[in-house]
Design a protein that fits this description.
Rossmann fold; 3-stranded antiparallel β-sheet; 40% helix
Length: 685
């Protein structure tokens, strides 16, 4: 009896499930698309070894899908016989990266590092809509003389849609082959997981529409896939116990997995994972050695060393600072010559002379903060003389109103000496370049009581706040300038707590928090374009030619973890500690949770796992942004500015301390009097 019941149930289930749609395919087992399609309950996949074999054996009016498994090195080999078969049998076909198309002239494949994919028709039923921007990483495509196309390759400006429309020059990427029921892709679209195509929802919709073209009556279910690189926690996922501590651990482990640390730090560290993504989803390492990144990386290792009581991390921290500050060429030549105007300053980088000749006050400020934190956590004073010398060197090249300018190069020091810069009166309303030096001066005043540190910092801060916001010059966005002002204003409250100074801080905090989303993210914002140094590209031609914002226009839901969010975390942390304001603390906590959520999770790509990309789209909840920046695009991971500060502040939060409190007992002033006499003229009080 039970056997009869089972037989009946089997036939009932079969009858309920209905017939399966047949999809003939010619592709490898490892192809991303075929792995997804094999899970579709309403599809029956028939495999063939070659396009010709598939076309011969497929039944009339069936669907055929052919992928480019040897992309980009080899095109799919197609013949006139193949096209005769699909035409006579009225097969519905998808072909990618073909070697031959009847009636069309194909050129040699072109590799395109700048061009993006743009929707150019209503084929996708308004999602993605016409002029929507998509990304195929490591794009190689075959130029073809075909006018109408559903997707095109083009150099376009914009965040997720082409703000200025399509340029005159475009190339077809996905089109219908005339006289055939065939969709042709001039690139490989079927390795979307491996190649980390973005945005994901849009690519899911693209593939659903392609499959509906091939199988008009099929039910395509759950086409979504897990990206190989994604946020650690979902937007609504309950954070686990110890999530912040785990983020610090993963953040510090990223450095070694990404090969950022050279010889345990004894030969320094590298600058970044660059934003270029190839067709295999890999990204290159930027191998420049620059002082600020090395100092900030040392700070991150010192923080992790203290939090986890890890001697290896402390050793890396010490090695990094010793390498750059003591043993490298950064501590030699003009920079070490007490008679030279550049004495005591630290060069931008040592990889080549273009870096070596430059001194940015902001970069030195962050490097000095790296020394402060590392010294306190490693319980050492071994870099105190270097730190005090750099503080005084920066001060003596800062003008009478407290501004130093963006950068000063070695030839300028050789020509002018330091007195020229000390006595000049310039105003540079650019917190990105100036604010962290003011913070360092306030810190130095607290330790030395040298009035000039306080006077020049306060004067510059007052001028800057009086011109806020319309007079401010902004770099990649206005939000980052607000974020940069938090730290000096918080530390100004520490050394000179007045109602006016608290009002300054409250004003900037309030305006920045207007940009904070309920998720904790801080939205990027651009100001008046005439005040912007590196605004979003204002034409298609300008895309990819300079530094740039991650957004196309205000309202785009993107956080910038290289220029804004990272420094907002530091600033809010120090402001909350300085004031005890619960509103600031709440904002800091929300931001910290957001950063822990969006930390990169990628077991298959260890070089990225535990990192923080520059861009995060908190609307899509995906690592996405306008990749227009020539050097620091949406998917870069900067070892110092981003990874160093986020890892450090999360660790300090775990240790329930701030940078100010941690470094309060610094003995850096021991060498102050001697160095001041050596570096300043007798008439400088």
């Amino acid at each position: 009896m039970w056997q009869k019941v089972k037989v009946i149930l089997f036939f009932l289930l079969c009858s309920c499930s209905g017939p399966k749609e047949i999809l003939n395919v010619c592709c490898s087992d490892s192809n991303d698309l075929i792995q997804i399609l094999q899970t579709q309950p309403k599809l029956r996949i028939q495999r063939f070894n070659s396009p010709d074999d598939a076309a011969r054996k497929a039944d009339e009016r069936q669907a055929l899908l052919i992928t480019a498994d040897q992309y980009p090195s080899n095109q799919v080999q197609l013949s006139a016989e193949f096209f005769a078969q699909i035409k006579s049998k009225k097969l519905r076909v998808y072909i990618e990266y073909p070697s031959y198309l009847p009636g069309l002239e194909l050129e040699k494949p072109v590799k395109s590092p700048v061009d993006r994919v743009v929707v150019n028709s209503s084929f996708f039923n308004s999602f993605p809509d016409s002029l929507s921007i998509l990304v195929v990483n490591g794009l190689s495509f075959i130029p073809v003389n075909q006018v109408r196309s559903h997707l095109v390759v083009a150099k376009v400006a914009g965040f997720d849609h082409a703000l200025f429309g399509l340029p005159e020059k475009t190339s077809p990427l996905l089109f219908e082959l005339p006289d055939y029921s065939a969709l042709v892709s001039t690139t490989c679209l079927s390795r979307m997981i491996t190649g980390r195509f973005a945005p994901q929802k849009e690519w899911t919709a693209v593939w659903k529409n392609i499959l509906h073209y091939l199988l008009p009556g099929a039910q395509i279910e759950n086409l979504n896939w897990n990206p190989s690189v994604r946020p650690t926690y979902g937007i609504n996922q309950t954070l686990p116990s110890g999530y912040q501590r785990k983020a610090v651990k993963s953040g510090i482990e990223w450095y070694e997995k990404a090969n950022m640390i050279v010889n345990n730090g004894k030969e320094g560290s590298y600058e970044a994972i660059m934003s270029v993504i190839d067709e295999q989803g890999a990204q290159p390492v930027g191998m420049v050695k620059r002082g600020d990144c090395i100092g900030e990386t040392a700070m991150a290792f010192a923080s992790a060393g203290a939090l986890f009581n890890n001697g290896k991390y402390r050793s890396v921290s010490t090695n990094l600072l010793d390498y750059y500050l003591v043993h490298s060429t950064a501590a030699q030549n003009e920079w070490a010559d007490s008679t030279h105007g550049a004495y005591g300053l630290i060069p931008w980088g040592i990889t080549n002379y273009a870096w070596y000749r430059a001194n940015y006050g902001d970069d030195n400020a962050r490097e000095m903060m790296g020394i402060m934190v590392s010294s306190a956590l490693n319980k050492t004073d071994q870099w105190d003389t270097i730190l005090m010398r750099c503080l005084l060197a920066q001060l003596r090249t800062t003008g009478v109103s407290g501004f130093r300018g963006d950068r000063i190069d070695l030839p300028e020091f050789t020509q002018n000496g330091w007195e020229y810069f000390f006595n000049r009166d310039i105003v540079n309303l650019a917190p990105h370049f100036e604010a962290y030096l003011w913070a360092c001066y306030l810190w130095a005043y607290d330790k030395t009581k040298y009035p000039l540190f306080l006077e020049r910092a306060v004067k510059a801060i007052e001028i800057t706040m009086k011109n806020y916001p319309d007079g401010w010059s902004w770099t990649n966005g206005l939000a980052q300038e607000k974020a940069r002002m938090l730290l000096p204003l918080a530390w100004l409250v520490r050394v000179n707590d007045t109602p006016e100074h608290r009002a300054y801080l409250k004003h900037i905090v309030g305006d920045l928090l207007q940009l904070q989303d309920s998720s904790g993210a801080i939205r990027e914002e651009i100001g008046d374009l005439k005040m912007g140094r590196f605004p979003p590209p204002q034409s298609n031609e300008a895309y990819g030619t300079n530094e740039a914002s991650l957004i196309g226009e205000n309202g785009d839901k993107v956080s910038d973890l290289l220029y804004t969010t990272n420094f907002a975390l530091l600033g809010l942390h120090e402001a909350a500690s300085a004031t005890g304001d619960p509103e600031i603390k709440t904002a800091e906590d929300k931001l910290a949770k957001f950063l822990c959520r969006i930390q990169v999770y990628s077991p298959s790509r260890s070089q990225l796992h535990g990192g923080w990309f520059r861009a995060f789209d908190f609307g899509r909840y995906e690592h996405w942004g306008c990749n227009a920046d020539q050097g620091w695009g949406a998917w870069c991971i900067e070892s110092g500015w981003t990874q160093g500060w986020i890892t450090t502040i999360l660790a300090l939060r775990e240790m329930n301390t701030s940078v100010w409190d941690l470094t309060r007992e610094s003995k850096v002033a021991v060498n102050y009097e001697q160095l001041k006499k050596k570096m300043f003229s007798v008439n400088v009080q």
